[in-house]
Amino acid sequence: PVASVLEIGGVKIVKDDVVRDDPTNNVPDTIFSKLGVQLHRRAQHPIGILKNAIYNYFDVNYSGKFDKFDDLCPIVSVKQNFDDVLVPEDHVSRSYNDTYYIDPETVLRCHTSAHQAELLTEGHTHFLVTGDVYRRDSIDSTHYPVFHQMEGVRVFSPAECEASGMDATSYAAGDLKKCLEGLARHLFGAVEMRWVDSYFPFTNPSFELEIYFQEKWLEVLGCGVMEQEILKRTGKINNVAWAFGLGLERLAMVLFEIPDIRLFWSTDERFTSQFSQGQLGVKFKPFSKFPPCYKDMSFWINDSFTENNLCEVVRGIAGDLVEEVRLIDNFTNKKGMTSHCYRIAYRSMERSLTDEEINQLQGNVREVAQSKLNVVLR
Ligand code: PHE
Description:
The protein is an alpha+beta fold. About 30% of the residues lie in helices and about 30% in strands. It is built from twelve helices and 16 strands.
């Protein structure tokens, strides 16, 4: 059962204000039910254990200078989430296809960067913000519409930069990379990692750190030197700063060898009992691998079709029983009609599914795809 009123960080949230039948609102019940869960505040959960280990690194290396926030409300204004961090008006991340909107001015934050400006304005110069973030996305083992980030910001005084003898931006960039490499060593010991140049509207230069995991390079954080404009607007004209945003699930998957991102939400004791407070080194032991079951589905799409919308339909019906939704065929006929074939992988982390159950799910998915997305099944 989903609570109808909850409170997060002193903010009262009424379910009917968040989940309602209104075209300017695209938050489904499945997402609402994640508000207030705050996996990052559970000391025995991998996400909470990781948060505390990162806190520990900062406490030790910066003698407690970083202020910590982990209870800021995930419902924020479009201004906080986008405008304040200089996300351009036409940026894709602002679209209803990528972000959960409660109304045209209010969103579920899609990153913890949404809190940068307010905390800078309040005068904080060293801070960490941990929280649940929300993104409409495709479905696979490393993507889930709710995940957790930790934001870090450090503002330098003009004197600190001058003392380095370098230009302020290079100094901040060097310090940032040193800080995050140190963090990676603190968490992982030896691990294969690489820096990749990147782009974010709020930093310049920008970088990403990738870690090698399950035969792939996995992006675990974005960072960079904060755009001067953000500092200027918060009243800091003579400072430089760095910022980073860590994906806690991605890091935890590597650290604890957790193979699928859905497991973080499992309440199965065979998952939860494997972790304990303060224990970073534990490797997750799968409690047995149940086989996936694949179902294909082909349909003619229309102009408004998006993969994210399909994924939300599938997630709405199958919940965490869906492991992956993958486009396996895509063609356009002579009449200009486009057909997509998706392969849906169903798999429970906890038990084996029956044929009957899967057929039922797939039947529902077909029906709802047809009625809600107006696609034409083939
Ligand atoms: N907000 C960015 C993201 O979610 C990460 C980031 C944070 C990048 C801070 C640079 C600086 O992808």
